[in-house]
Amino acid sequence: MLTLILLLVAVVGLLAVMRREAGALPALAVLAVTGLASLLLASTLLGLLLLAGAIAVAVAGLPALRGKWLTPRLFALFKKVSPKVSDTERVALEAGSVAWDGELFTGKPNWQALLDAKDDGLSDEERAFIDNQCSVAAGMCNAWEIAKERADLPQELWDHLKQERYFGMIIPKAYGGLGFSAKAQSLVLQKLSVNETLMVTVGVPNSLGPGELLLKYGTDEQKNHYLPRLADGREIPCFGLTGPRAGSDATSLPDAGVVCKQTIDGKEVLGVRLNFEKRWITLAPIATVVGLAFRLFDPEKLLGDEEDRGITLALIPRDTAGMEIGRRHHPIGSPFLNGPIKGKDVFVPLDTIIGGEAMIGQGWRMLVECLSVGRCITLPSGATGTARYAIGWSGGFARIRRQFNVPVAEMEGIQEPLARMTALGYIAQAAVYQTANTIDRGEKPAVPSAILKSQLTEFQRVILGDAMDIHGGKAVTLGPRNYLAIGYSANPVAITVEGANIMTRNLMIFGQGAIRCHPYVLEELAARDADDVKAFDKAFFGHAGLIFGNAARAFTQGLGLGRPAVPFQGEAKRYAQEIARLSAGFGLCADAAMASLGSTLKQREMLSARLGDVLANLYLASMVIKQWHEGDKVEGEAALFHYSCQWLLGRAEQALDELFDNLPSRALAGALRLAVMPRGKRFKRPHDDLARAIAQAVSRDSALRTKLLANTWSADDGSQPNFLARYNALLATQERAEALYRTVNKAFAKGELPAVALHPEQRVEAALEAGLISADDAAFMREREARVLELLTVDDFEYDAFVTDKSKVLRHHAA
Q: Among 212, 498, 578, 653, which one carries the catalytic annotation?
């Protein structure tokens, strides 16, 4: 018995030391004391084993001992097996900053660090712009007219966007812009997401493009000339990066510029002769100034000794000789302006290079540094705004659409997708707002930008699919009354651009995070490159301590022991503790995958994707908790909070489970499964009760619906119809209508009304005549049924309305 007690004491002591990453000395003390006690009082064999362990810890763990023989050998091995980092990868790794994503890699996230990112809210000017100017812009949009009749925004909307300086949200007031915060930019785009063409048109100039590049890298002359003109719309920018052979792998672009001299107006000018072919360039057909990425060469060495000067960015006026611009692509589902740009022997002076001669060859760094911010805002905000509108439309439609004498919102087959899309929208709102808040506090979140772009646009895909299912025939028939289907068909654009989701999920989230966010990997690589054995010793054994610490934390917390302290109470406390548990498991699995697969992990994209999925879901769940903790709660929100957290943490556990199933080393996989999930998976699909509660709230005039639909165009005050406002108006009187429906339908079922009264309108009149309802109630229901019927009606057209070549029309019944 004493032997068993001493063994348990040793194990518990070691776990405690490991959890705290206390170092070699405490571990040595635990092993030595329990070993000696066992040797003297209990089992000689156990004592010898524990003392042997103490010797091993001393030799490997004490710097004075390991530095003489172990560290040099490990350093030599590390140099051989560690992955090589290319120059382009290094630039990407060094771009941006690390915040909460780094905490999740530690296995012991400091929640207070997340809460310290205080939210200062919006300025009065920003709030007024969202409430007023954005409502005006949204009120000018009719999806059918824009997509099918104009293939463009109406002129009065273009005039409004320029006059109100929408294209200058990121440009400081000193240059004539709006100087908005990242949060305000996000909320503007969310409100404008009532129409995807409008959102893209405003979003792109405020994301990756000439404006941001000029702000960060432009010369004073470039800033003073271009920024005021970009802010007020005198200049419309586009940015030419991608081409036929350079999409996600933007560093492989074949477009080239050669430094040369050319005589212009009798003067010899030093510049660049460009040949390029770009595709998929948003706003290119109407752009007045083109940002261009190309590879610069200096064969005559006019600028220095280097011939290959690297990726460089320039800003080229539209009317430059040799540039072909103006044709359009036809993006799926949406007519946002997008097209090709070609250039043959286009000569531009050297001062067109953004940032001047000093920034030659810095183009890739410039791009990835800008992308880490822009990618956090534009498409994630568009997806979040789309979710707001889709939730509002779908909840309203499900309540007024009646089948089998009840609203379809009462049917569980509708409640399930309605709850799911509401939860995804809730998660998106929290993630995009809280990440924008970190940007406003000076962060440049590189890894979170990849998480938000890929995850939220995938959410958008699910949300729009669910909305289509709920609407049924209403949504599959195109026309001016269909507010949903055009955006649904355009969704693949968001999935594809700014880093295709497949690439982002499989390569970027974990591939970049494993080095950039890890507490020690970057230091180890830096020590290797500097051939600094002392720096390597510090980083490597710190890393080893982290591995042991995560193993201990994951295992003990997986058993329900030693839950970490978190600065939350109530509903949020448990979920924060579960995130900490899964963070420790994720950190352990990340290190195990990197150690066992080495540089081949780059090619094991499905494994990398699953690790990225764990990180992504933990990040999103953390943002939901922070938003819940800091925000004002409304009735019904608790169900949505629980659903969202359970769904995200269930996905994180599922990704870990699939990782264990597919790791090449089965022994390692088994050990990791035991350490990380000793009691199996904790989270299942959210309970049906939660789904029912969410669907009921979002399909009624509730506080929760109002909160979710904040920052939408919800007033019927534009030149175009606002379907969301009309649903809201009907839901505001739903209780009265439901009582009257019950009265009338009950009377009909009992035979108290004529059997031929099949339409609701007929039953209302019959009930009035029978004295079952008052004249006031009848008037109310007449007006209501007229509104309902208008919202349920779909459009029809002339027989040959969709035929572009009328000579090809088939007249099947000529008579």
A: 498
